[in-house]
Every structure is written in structure tokens, then in C-alpha cells.
Amino acid sequence: MSELTHINASGDAHMVDVSGKAETVREARAEAFVEMAAQTLAMIINGNHHKGDVFATARIAGIQAAKKTWDLIPLCHPLLLTKVEVSLEAQPEHNRVRIESRCRLSGKTGVEMEALTAASVAALTIYDMCKAVQKDMVIGPIRLLEKSGGKSGDFKADSHAESKVKI
């Protein structure tokens, strides 16, 4: 078995030992979407939501989630992130919100899970804040857009992949 696996020699799940890996600058970006009714999106855009600024709350939730990924996803390493950004964009032409997260650090393991967690939790926060108005919102797709740094090399998602996914 490979040295960098979540399965040990006994076949049990374990946290990968990254102590022998070199520290490099690592960065990852992820995106998520929340599809909703035009009226719900308009309420968010116009700032008419009785719970306050939906985008600001989702942004903070995404940042906090990225910092706690190790506490949410089994076998993830606790990381000292040096940068977490969460941006939200209303896309009225599609009745949805697009969320993009970016995580960065200098370390021995990547930040893909942190970026995906940030985007996911921001999407869930939008749902939570708006569920009293609309329960049938759809979250997804959620995907890794790109990652750089580390032994496994760089990754960049097909830029046309999102347009192929219908939500």
C-alpha cells in the first residue's frame, strides 16, 4: 500500500503521517451553487431578509468552517491556514448564488478539503437563512476548481464542466 493512504497495513483507517513531506505553498479553490426562486434571490440582493445580510453571514460561516475542517471531516489534518476567502455572487439570470472559496497555507498537506468545506458551509448557511421563505432550494454542484502545490501536482477543473451540470 502507498505510504500516503488513509488505510494502514492492518486495513484500518488512520490519519496519514505527513511528517516526512516538504512544506510548500498550497492553495485550493472550490465553488458551490444555491438555486432558488427569483423572489428569494431578489430578497437577498435587495437586503430585505429579516435575518440580516445573508451574504455576509454565509461568508463568515464559510471562513469559520474552513478553519474547522479537521474537526468536521474524519482523518483531516488540523491546518494553520494563512488565507481564506469566500466570495458570493448573485446570478439572477440563473436564479442562483455562486460561492467561491480560496484557501492557502505553507505546509505539508493540501487545502482542498478546506476550500470545499468553506463553499459547502456557505451554501448551507444561505439555505438555513432562507428556508423559512423557501424550503425547496437546491445546493450543488460543489466542486474543486483548482489546487496547486504539493507532491501530487497542480489540478485545474475543466472550465466548461459547470455549464454541463444542470441544477
UniProtKB/TrEMBL annotation:
Binding site for substrate: 75-77, 113-114
Substrates-to-products reaction catalysed: (8S)-3',8-cyclo-7,8-dihydroguanosine 5'-triphosphate = cyclic pyranopterin phosphate + diphosphate
Enzyme Commission code: 4.6.1.17
Single annotated GO MF: cyclic pyranopterin monophosphate synthase activity
Keywords: Lyase, Molybdenum cofactor biosynthesis
InterPro entries according to UniProt: MoaC, MoaC_bact/euk, MoaC_sf, MoCo_biosynth_MoaA/MoaC, Mopterin_CF_biosynth-C_dom
GO BP annotations listed: Mo-molybdopterin cofactor biosynthetic process
Pathway listed: Cofactor biosynthesis; molybdopterin biosynthesis
Keyword hit for Lyase: yes
Domain Molybdopterin cofactor biosynthesis C (MoaC) residues, every copy: 15-150
Assembly description: Homohexamer; trimer of dimers.
Function: Catalyzes the conversion of (8S)-3',8-cyclo-7,8-dihydroguanosine 5'-triphosphate to cyclic pyranopterin monophosphate (cPMP).
Name recorded for this polypeptide: Cyclic pyranopterin monophosphate synthase
Organism: Rahnella sikkimica
